[in-house]
Amino acid sequence: MTKSRINSSDLLSGLELMIDSYQGKEQILGVNLNPVIVRLSCEEGCVKVIEMARRLGVTADTVRFYTRIKILKPGKNKTNGYREYSENDYNRLRFVLSARQLGFSVEDIQEILNHADKKKSPCPTVRRLIDQRLNETEQRFAETLQLRERMQQAVVEWSQKPDKVPTGHMICHLIEEFAQ
Amino acid sequence: MTKSRINSSDLLSGLELMIDSYQGKEQILGVNLNPVIVRLSCEEGCVKVIEMARRLGVTADTVRFYTRIKILKPGKNKTNGYREYSENDYNRLRFVLSARQLGFSVEDIQEILNHADKKKSPCPTVRRLIDQRLNETEQRFAETLQLRERMQQAVVEWSQKPDKVPTGHMICHLIEEFAQ
DNA sequence: CTTGACCTGTGTCTTGGACACAGGTGTAAG
DNA sequence: CTTACACCTGTGTCCAAGACACAGGTCAAG
Fold first, then answer.
1. What number of other Cβ atoms are within 10 A of residue B156's Cβ?
2. How far is it, in rounded angstroms, from Cα A88 to Cα A90?
3. What are the C-alpha distances in Å from B29 to residues B10, B20, B24, B35, B94?
4. Residue B96 in contact with residue B110, Cβ under 8 Å?
5. CA A46 → C1' D8, Å?
6. What is the pLDDT of residues A125-160, one digit of tens each?
7. Mean pLDDT of residues grouped by 10 in chain B (180 residues)?
8. How far apart are CA A33 and CA A130, in angstroms?
9. Are residues A103 and B145, on separate chains, in Cβ contact within 8 Å?
10. For A18-37, what is the mean pLDDT?
11. What SS3 class is residue A174?
């Protein structure tokens, strides 16, 4: 397959792209990379799990998780079985993290990626899903707000009340007398 | 068996007992309770799971759950193995539901009940735990608030943007261009 | 006798990873 | 060469608070 015959300068630019987007000073080292040696060490996309994780500021377990559920599809080194993450995997993971920041569930993201993988615009799906998730978030927000107020009020009220020993029909008067 | 011969007025007084103890005026009706009849209708506490659930407005599964983790300890009918919930179980479940409303975890509640069961005041534990849980709730609240704002802003921004088809390095421009 | 509603215990599912574990790999130092 | 150590693999389990499923037992009414 031609697929395995990746142009080394492509690979390098892919690498640089990834390194750059991570942070800063690897550029200095990027110059030292010998493309030939890079190709020797791995066929297509050189990045192992821990490196991938580091570049996007997540744990290796997170990368493994997204691999396990097939959102990432790294190649496999034939000789040692190690997974090799490509620039494409990097882009996907970056996308996943952005989407998670916007409240999409992992399942949502799989749906979105399915559309994109078929070259169809995922935007209508994205708009529909964010409406749903926003509703749920508003709901959760309201609940959390109420819970917080209840708790705050309890703390205030309880500060005026003594401790008591439980009786037959009262386990903790603080909690049971806190009517709401 | 005498067991199956449930006197309907007993059932009613059992009901009343539980209902009353919830509201606090059981002493008035307590006069009406005939202990002998109560013992005939069921040995100690007459209530089966679905009835218990209905009275506190939860599902039978919830009652079974708290039974499974031994917060409720119903008796067991020797002949059919059905669980029989007593007034004490009713009080405990009512307490549990109140505590859950105040953000205590089930594990918290077990700790609180352990104190109460040893006749020690659970109040210091309760005060300590609510401080922790309130902190966590404030945290969650802040996070939910931020997520909500992010999502709202995304919806607004996206309403001005067209759908697009994914490219090699862009899966969904809506999500990926939404910088924050 | 059958139907249907109820009961039992047990096991599995939910989210988004985190952690564990057994066993393989790669490399640098002694 | 061996050893140590850091890394890798797949798989399984765990979290919270129930919800749901399932196989099998019970019971009252028709």
1. 9
2. 5
3. 13, 8, 11, 13, 20
4. no
5. 14
6. 999 999 999 999 999 999 999 999 999 999 999 999
7. 31 38 34 35 70 95 96 93 93 97 97 96 97 97 97 97 94 92
8. 42
9. no
10. 36
11. helix
Residue A67's nearest CA partner among A92, A98, A43, A46 is A92
The DSSP line for B131-160 is HHHHHHHHHHHHHHHHHHHHHHHHHHHHTT
Match 């939404």 to its residue by tokens.
Answer: B178
* Angstrom distances, CA of residue B164 to CA of A13, A74, A126, B22, B174: 26, 26, 11, 60, 9
Cα separation, A159 vs B75, whole angstroms: 38
Residue B75 has phi, psi (to 5 degrees) of: -75, 175
DSSP line for A74-142: -EE-TTT--EEB-HHHHHHHHHHHHHHHTT--HHHHHHHHHHHHTT---HHHHHHHHHHHHHHHHHHHH
Query: What is the per-residue pLDDT for A180?
Result: 75
- With beta carbons less than 8 A apart as the criterion, state whether B115 and B121 touch: yes
Which pair of structure tokens corresponds to residue B110? 């077990």
Q: Supply A104's token pair.
A: 């999409």
Whether B95 sits inside 8 A of A175 (CB atoms) is yes
Q: Evaluate if the CB of A86 falls below 7 Å from strand D.
A: no
Which class for A135: exposed (0-12), middle (13-18), buried (19 or more C-beta within 10 A)? exposed
Residue type, A146: Q
Q: Do B116 and A166 touch (CB under 8 A)?
A: yes
- Chains A and B: how many Cβ contacts under 8 Å? 145
For chain A, what are the domain ranges? Answer: 121-180
Residue A90 CA to residue A16 CA, distance in Å, equals: 12
Best interface-test mutation with A: which of B144, B173, B180 has the largest number of A CBs within 10 A? B144
**Contact in structure between A75 and A83 (CB atoms under 8 Å):** yes
